[in-house]
Amino acid sequence: QVALVESGGGLVQPGGSLRLSCLASRNIFSFNAMGWYRQVPGKQRELVAQLTSGGSTNYADSVKGRFTISRDHARNTVYLQMNSLKPEDMGVYYCNARNFGSSRSEYWGQGTQVTVSS
Predict the structure, then answer these.
(1) Residue 75's closest CA among 5, 10, 8, 18?
(2) Is the model's pLDDT at 14 over the cut of 90?
(3) Using alpha carbons only, what angle is made at residue 70 by residues 26 and 95, rounded to the nearest 5 degrees?
(4) Nearest to 45, CA basis, from 117, 95, 116, 103
(5) Interatomic CA distance for residues 35 and 29, integer angstroms
(6) How far apart are CA 14 and CA 28, in angstroms?
(7) What is the DSSP string of 7-48?
(8) Which terminus of the chain is less hemmed in, N or C, by CB atoms within 10 Å?
């Protein structure tokens, strides 16, 4: 069983910054990809940013240039640096880890709330 524990959410004013952290219970390079998803009430969970084991990144168009996903292998942690936050960035942010292909698997954290409001 894999545990993903998010932290770093909270209340921030528009234009502010937050850094989310996702601590994995095992080596993050054991996953093909790790990422961050956002969910708001009444909508499906959507991809915000993804980082593959090979180092490739993928961002939602709405966050390109403002958010950065990164990792610290030694700490088994993936980060999401969020700058220039907007009210539309609000939601519950979930950490995700997955493997593709024949060993397909997927894991989710419990989520952390991000609120952008003045």
Answers:
(1) 5
(2) yes
(3) 55
(4) 95
(5) 13
(6) 32
(7) E--EEE-TT--EEEEEEESS-GGGSSEEEEEEE-TTS--EEE
(8) N
Cα–Cα distances in Å, from 72 out to 9, 17, 75, 77?
Answer: 19, 20, 5, 5
Name the band, by pLDDT with cuts 50, 70 and 90, for residue 1: confident
Task: Output the average pLDDT for the chain.
Answer: 96
Q: Which residue has the tokens 């403002």?
A: 66
Both tokens assigned to 44: 């499906």
Give the phi and the psi of residue 74 in degrees, each rounded to 5. Answer: -65, -30
Give me the residues paired with residue 68 across strands.
Answer: 81
Write the CA distances from 21 to 15, 85, 101, integer angstroms.
20, 17, 27
Residue-wise pLDDT for 47-58, tens only, equals: 999 999 999 999
